[in-house]
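Review form for a predicted model. The reviewer records the input and the model, then writes brief findings.
Reviewer: anonymous (R2)
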Amino acid sequence: MTTVLALETATEACSLALLNGGVVTQRHEVIPRGHYQRIFGMLRELLPGGDIADTGIDVLAYGSGPGSFTGLRIAASLAQGLSFSTGLPVVAVPTLATLAQTALRAGAVSPGDTVLCTLDARINEVYTAVYSFVDGIACLREGPWALSPGDQQVEFAGQLRAVGSGCRYLHEFPAELVERIASSLPDLLPEARDVAELAGPQISAGRFQAPADVSPVYVRDEISWKKLAEQGRPG
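Model under review:
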């Protein structure tokens, strides 16, 4: 079986997981700041030998966003750096998909539910996407988008379960949409173990990124990212 090292730092949660032979080992801490200072210590805890080349890891998976700009850069930079140094392939996993998968594993939603995944995007916007589940895996139905709470629209006409920090603004969502939300869970945060789970179908399909192609997904078009190969060059 494929061994996956997964990283997720797009929210207040700093989360790393190792999926090996169906067994998950995870380090997960909720720390509003300091992800960069903590993540390397967590990596050493997860891989006591310290040498990633000797751990049998086959694939690196990272939460690609959207989310905190700083947090996204941390996961992408670490995945990219490890891939450059080891030659391991990389899989990008959308953070909102991970949120849906975490909700399913935690029992907050059921396999037959349609989930409105939300994250507080700050500056009066919410990142949103709609997911359902196929064979227990979160699959995108709509989105993602970044809109003000009052501009949120979902084409899916059925009942929704809302999860994520954007739920704190549900009182500002359009009334027609709020009426279709059966439950909300604003405190749910994505976990790296679910990044590893979602990486599975991409690994099976051979959808890998080379290290030079690792890049966060900000949703907002005006945000730019410089890959390691481009950092230090004039803009």
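Findings: The domain at 4-94+190-213 is CATH 3.30.420.40 (Nucleotidyltransferase; domain 5).
Further findings: Confidence is low (pLDDT under 50) at residues 222-235.
Recommendation: see findings above.
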